[in-house]
Amino acid sequence: MKKVIAYILISAILFSTMEVALKTAGNHLDPLQLTFLRFLIGGVFLFPFALKEIKKLGTVFTKKDYTHMLLMGIVCICISMVFFQLGVDHSNASTAAVIFCINPMFTMLFAHFLTEEKMNRKKLIALGIGILGILFMVNPFHLSPGNTLMGASFSVLSALFFGLYSAMGRTSVRRLGGLTQTSISFIMGSVVMLPVLILFDRPIFSGITVNHLPMLFYISIMITGIGYLLYFLAMGESDAATASVVFFVKPGLAPIFAVIALGEVIEINGFIGIALIFVSSYINLREQKKKNGKIEKEIEVKEGFNEEINPK
């Protein structure tokens, strides 16, 4: 259990520094360039661990699997994470961070149509509270210094499409493995971004100096690589609901890092928004735990039934 707590804590800290790091790097590098590089490097970093998972699970890929992971990569890297970087660039890091934490609520919504996980009254309440939290966090009638409606809109779109990416992943994660489909989808999505960069005459490696390398290393290897690795290790040692505590902790930690590192000021409406998103995340976490408990009970009943029919 100590190992799981360590994985979750370190992963939560890394993910909570993401917006501050991206805000800092975004002042020097092109947003599309930064998104391309961090997920290409992060995906390659995760790939050796994915190979171990493939060997462990004995995974055999089909053309449908590759197409599925390609679509996941396009949704995540080319759409969600581009919106995410633009959201960070056009709003306060604390605002972008808290808004992005609503993505599990959108995952529930998309999972209703893509999986057997159907929406219920509690999930709808969680989604409604989360959206209310966004409204308080942004306060469109009186924007805090540093925030813009454009930035908030980009952040909401990012969370929406990341929710779709996560729901797509749920349809295949048990067979392909979390690390495997994450690593491959990151790499594939980055490769798709390459011709987009060329087409729109965006920089790929140009403009990067020695001074930018430490921050690029931190964003690509530490946050995108090690952050996701520890998240999946926590999931492997426990379950998906326990590992998702990472995203429950982030709305509280990320604004603190933004205040310390960037000198941002969070007004009273921001604290109300953070509190509402905490409540929304808690309801979602409880529903996830309840679902996992039902699945485990069904497996135990099925195994007991099989032992009765085929005793050893």
TrEMBL record:
Gene Ontology cellular component annotations, sorted alphabetically: membrane
Annotated EamA domain residues: 4-138, 150-284
Keyword tags: Membrane, Transmembrane, Transmembrane helix
Record's bilayer topology term: Multi-pass membrane protein
Places the protein is found: Membrane
Superkingdom of this protein's organism: Bacteria
Transmembrane segments: 31-50, 70-88, 94-115, 124-143, 149-167, 179-200, 215-234, 241-262, 268-285
InterPro entries: AA-Vitamin_Transporters (IPR050638), EamA_dom (IPR000620), EmrE-like (IPR037185)
One Pfam family, short name: EamA
Family assignment from sequence similarity: Belongs to the EamA transporter family.
Name assigned to this protein: DMT family transporter
